[in-house]
Amino acid sequence: MFFICGKAFAADASGQPTQYQVTMKKVELCTDLACTSPYVVGERDMDADIASVSAGADVGNFAPTTGIPPGIVYTHLRVTISRTFTITASISVGAGLCRTDGGDNATATQMTVGASNGTAVAETMYLVNAGSYGATDGTRDGAVGSSNIDIDYSSPSSAKTMTVSGDNAVMVYELTAPYQKTLRAPVIKVKFNTSTAVGVEDTACSMWINEPSVTISLQ
Asked: Around Cβ 37, how many Cβ atoms within 10 Å?
């Protein structure tokens, strides 16, 4: 489910992780983009590797849909996730590769700094604060436009809106078609494309989380 924009410095690229594990916390159905009167489908912590082949089914089974009230037309789905991800990736950039190295060095203002050699291993990556990050160290230097790598959540490409604060990120997605419950409980169908879900910059192998493509329908 998820986010980002990058600005080139020396060489940057985006690629496919082999693991992209998120912790889902809450799923809500909404009657509009503002989500002013949501119906809570489910609320619990559940890990899901959305780079896996079973990702759509795993996320679709987050909670039962039997309690959705009839007679209401839902157009959007709001998802709350943790800002902490577990990611394994080796991404080609410039003339080399940048890999997750298990260093777990990321914070809200510090991008993951990977390695240019060795084997990619799982690493805790953090959905960093919006702002501009230095290519030499992956540290936030200031507001967007002030340094080398810009992270901005104001215009997500797959979600309609996205906010990042505290320990969580919240995205609102538009359903592929409006849904109104009939006698049968619906199945939530989710499709992910994580082919560009990790961004890297080769000066220091700074790595950040990109937004995957997400399509959601209720059938």
From this structure: 11
